[in-house]
């Protein structure tokens, strides 16, 4: 039996156990995935403990993703993003960030190319950082719009080292959206319990727009409802959650997990 887990605080509501355990069951693997409450100050001990206990791999969530950079050996991308969400324990402790790849694969699965596309990314927090780096690296032209423009500018300063990015506040959103192919909400706006909030409404959108909300609770956010009203293509946050898990699973096991089974497990748990 091989153990896997997610470390965080709080962590009891994590959907990762149900998602990964569904895969282990489907593939007949003798593995289990559990959630462990670990504080920032105990992260180092927990990582070494898991390593000597023979864990197959770990995910990290709030508030441990940044602290892990000082402990594990991060990939270049994780270091640029400034956060680790996946630790591979096969040889030492290597830290990856699969959040941005998760977003990219959620788009790819729907046949949406990002190279050369104008992407408007709302938000400049941790999730936005991961997405911005990944999309810019693959040739998207990313506009990062944040309520606090200073944070968007700080992120752009980092992202332009590897690709195309510019910063904005929220004043010109309508014009920015009319020039955009893809709109991604990486803020927490619209998340339960404040489900009647959205930064962008239908009259600001167009039917050729792809609208991707990383919020997954609720699955059908107000932003996505507005996008449907405008005739836009929509992608919900469950797909990013699932695909960051797909990438973690591939890193740990070198196997491709069944995406549909992961998606079903997450949607059932959320419902
Ligand atoms: P995460 O790691 O989940 O991205 P975060 O680092 O706290 O979380 O970032 C939250 C993001 O949501 C930020 O971009 C934040 O904007 P500010 O930088 O201006 O704070 C954005 N956000 C949260 N609540 C918001 C609101 N009511 N309106 C607009 N943006 C909001």
Written description of the protein model:
By secondary structure, the protein is of the alpha/beta class. The protein folds into 2 domains: 2-97 and 239-270, Rossmann fold, CATH 3.40.50.10860; 100-236, Rossmann fold. The chain contains 10 helices and 12 strands. The chain has helices spanning 16-26, 43-52, 76-81, 99-109, 126-137, 149-159, 173-178, 222-229, 237-253, 259-270, and strands at residues 2-8, 31-37, 57-60, 73-74, 86-88, 94-96, 118-122, 141-145, 164-168, 182-185, 210-213, 233-235. The strands form 2 sheets. The protein has a 6-stranded mixed β-sheet with strand order 2-1-3-5-6-4, sandwiched between helices. It has a 6-stranded parallel β-sheet with strand order 9-8-7-10-11-12, sandwiched between helices. It is globular. The mean pLDDT is 98. 2'-monophosphoadenosine-5'-diphosphate binds at residues 123-128, 146-148, 151, 187-189, 199.
């Amino acid at each position: 039996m091989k153990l896997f887990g997610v470390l965080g605080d709080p962590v009891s509501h994590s959907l990762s156990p149900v998602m990964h355990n569904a895969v282990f069951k489907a593939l007949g693997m003798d593995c289990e995935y559990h959630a462990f409450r670990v504080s920032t100050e105990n992260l180092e001990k927990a990582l070494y403990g898991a390593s000597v206990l023979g864990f197959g791999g770990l995910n990290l969530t709030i508030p441990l993703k940044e602290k892990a950079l000082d402990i594990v050996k991060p990939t270049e991308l994780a270091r640029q993003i400034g956060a680790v969400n996946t630790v591979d324990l096969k040889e030492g402790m290597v830290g990856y960030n699969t959040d941005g790849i998760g977003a990219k694969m959620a788009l790819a699965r729907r046949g949406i190319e990002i190279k050369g596309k104008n992407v408007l990314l709302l938000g400049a927090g941790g999730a936005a950082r991961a997405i911005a780096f990944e999309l810019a690296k693959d040739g998207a032209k990313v506009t990062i719009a944040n309520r606090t423009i200073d944070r968007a500018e700080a992120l752009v300063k980092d992202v332009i080292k590897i690709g195309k990015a510019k910063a904005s506040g929220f004043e010109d959103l309508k014009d920015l959206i009319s020039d955009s192919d893809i709109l991604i909400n990486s803020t927490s706006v619209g998340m339960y319990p404040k489900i009647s909030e959205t930064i962008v409404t239908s009259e600001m959108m167009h039917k050729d727009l792809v609208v991707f909300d990383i919020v997954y609770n609720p699955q059908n956010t107000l932003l996505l409802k507005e996008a449907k009203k405008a005739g836009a293509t929509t992608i919900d946050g469950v797909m990013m959650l699932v695909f960051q898990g797909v990438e973690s699973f591939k890193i740990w096991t070198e196997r491709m997990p069944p995406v549909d089974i992961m998606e079903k497990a997450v949607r059932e748990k959320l419902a």
